[in-house]
Known about the structure:
- The protein is 33% helix and 22% strand.
- By secondary structure, the protein is of the alpha/beta class.
- It folds into 2 domains: 6-181, 3-Layer(aba) Sandwich (Rossmann fold); 189-397, 3-Layer(aba) Sandwich (Rossmann fold), CATH 3.40.50.10300.
- The structure holds cytidine-5'-triphosphate (CTP).
- The site of cytidine-5'-triphosphate (CTP) has 15 residues, from helix 11 and strand 14.
Amino acid sequence: MLKGKKIVLGITGSIAAYKSCLIIRQLIKKGAEVQVVITPAGKEFITPITLSALTCKPVISEFFSQRDGTWHSHVNLGLWADAMLIAPATASTIGKMANGIADNMLITTYLSMKAPVFIAPAMDLDMYAHPSTQKNLQTLQSYGNHVIEPGTGFLASKLEGKGRMEEPENIVAALEAFFAKQCDLEGECILITAGPTYEKIDPVRFIGNYSSGKMGFALAEECARRGADVTLVCGPVSAAMQTEHPNIHRINVESAQQMYEVCKERFPSMTSAVLCAAVADYAPEAVAMEKMKRTADDLVIRLKPNPDIAAALGKMKQAGQKLVGFALETNNEESNAQSKLKKKNFDFIVLNSLKNKGAGFQTDTNQITIITPQGKTEYALKPKTEVAKDIIDRLVQQG
Ligand code: CTP
């Protein structure tokens, strides 16, 4: 998993800096390429000569090379790396990272980093437990960084050694697990529906809903990042909603009927479908050709049912194909979700309740419960990008 991977290893001023040598040795043994960036305090604990001998690369510590004044580009390092690992990470470096205080090469490299960042804190117990450190670590996690908690490898008491840097083999194992997961959807073709649908009333009016498409887009990015080929069938969302990964093929539709036709045609060649769109259940029976005029009378618009995309795909589903649905409920949430799971032949259903603050439409966060025929799992309120990971992890586990 680490073969050919380019790792920027950030080393800071902690007694645990000597363990960086063991991390480098293991990374290199597993085929990775390592570039060390060290803070001025880090050099007090371990010499750049040792580190460059192990990595076969000059160690970067200053903005300019002392010999010839060559500029070290943190931007290039940020583009070069497949991952950045800061081990050991002191309380001071963690604080600077959380607050963007770019006063050394390691922090500027962190701020320019395009690859995932792993942080292995190393400090004494009191410093680690201090609310400042904990808050900074939480901030870094909310930015999508991975914290390799100290002491997770200790089997005895979790508190014993808490603050002490995680053992080198466990740090390397965390990186390996991350890269293994990165491509666990290779060869999969996944259909994702996202956003609202608009059902035309006349040339200027429609029936719609508040869905932003954010959850569906986060799912599409997560699947593509893990190696899948993604078809994103997308209702009318804001122009700001753009996909990033090249393996996402976006098909824009407006109405439920259009979404239904695309999904029905594409589903047979897919390995899974995740139906995240908020599809209108009804559409006006007739669309007025001209803009409807105000009159003194009440206005009655007769609605006809739209096709149920989920139920149709549930009927078409073949052995080996997986189908995931969403349910947004306001009452009797779990029993409603359970009956939808059966009715639509889903493998599992993602329930979000409008009762939960921060969950549902338009928000950047979501709080979900995954319901399978066997039981349920509740998750904490998280950014939609993190929720997407939980949902896709479950899809992978589903086998
Ligand atoms: N869905 C769909 N096509 C529809 C309606 C819903 O594919 N015409 C999908 C949604 O994308 C979601 C799931 O079905 O994955 C459940 O949607 P929801 O609107 O909660 O379910 P309904 O069947 O419409 O049930 P109800 O309106 O009775 O709650």
